[in-house]
Predict the 3D structure of the following.
Amino acid sequence: MAYKSVRDVARHPGAQQSIALVETCAEMCREKGVNFSEVLQDPSVEGHRPLYWVIISGPPSNQYGLLSAILNHSGPLSSEAVDEVRLACLQVGDQTLFSHLWKHPAYGALSGADELFLGAAAHTDYVDVQEATADEVGAFIVHFEITQFHKRMTVSGKIVFEFIARGLCFYVDHALGCPN
């Protein structure tokens, strides 16, 4: 039942009842002792996870309720699921959507040390990508704000963030370099 319902959500992500259906499936799985996170992370819908299809269908900006509902029950995402989220976001070319997903705790963008250190401010890192005009082919500008950058570098020695620009996913891994 859960697989069929999740497949229905993936096929019709814009339906009014999609979020309620995810919540109902989660409750049913809890009652039957089924791990709903495993159901959501299984590539059972045409070889992909339901989250992939919801992203591909392109939810309108600021209407990420279904994505959040799925993520709330999926976390933490496996590395394969994270790769598929990146792929789907690349295919639709939506940095705003990717940023929303990247900040969700289920995505696992922050290290455990950063989550402990930042607490409530854990997901306030900000990345803004501005694609240049057609005259400047391939150019883009990235503005980013890293919450408590200096302290995080001191405590964990590393900060990672990702963004999408010009059809590419950039993974920035800044580690503290200490002289020997």
Observations:
- Residues 109-180 form one domain.
- The CA atoms of residues 22 and 142 lie 35 Å apart.
